[in-house]
Design goal:
Elements (H helix, E strand, L loop, with lengths): L17 E15 L5 E9 L2 E7 L4 H6 L4 E8 L3
Antiparallel strand pairs: 1-2, 1-4, 2-3
Length: about 80
């Protein structure tokens, strides 16, 4: 079935492909790198499925502004 917009679905993402658009955010958690820097780990979801996601530069203030359930606008690059 063809998509009705130019939006790329999670199942269609390829390695290194730029991603920009709204996604549902699920299970957002703060993690720490080996050098004790905070990062976001979560699942992103759309009608085609879910994918794990990371944001490497985040602080607690920004993390606390994320919706517990809902949608976020993301921009990034797909990696396996």
């Amino acid at each position: 079935m063809a998509a009705t917009s130019n939006r790329t679905l999670i199942t269609d993402l390829g390695e290194g492909e730029h991603v920009s658009g709204p996604f549902a955010i699920i299970n957002a958690q703060l993690g720490k790198t080996r050098t004790d820097k905070l990062y976001l780990r979560c699942l992103l979801s759309d009608r085609s499925g879910t994918a794990p996601a990371r944001m490497w530069s985040i602080d607690e203030v920004m993390f606390n502004r994320l919706p517990a359930e809902g949608f976020v606008w993301i921009e990034g690059v797909a990696q396996s």
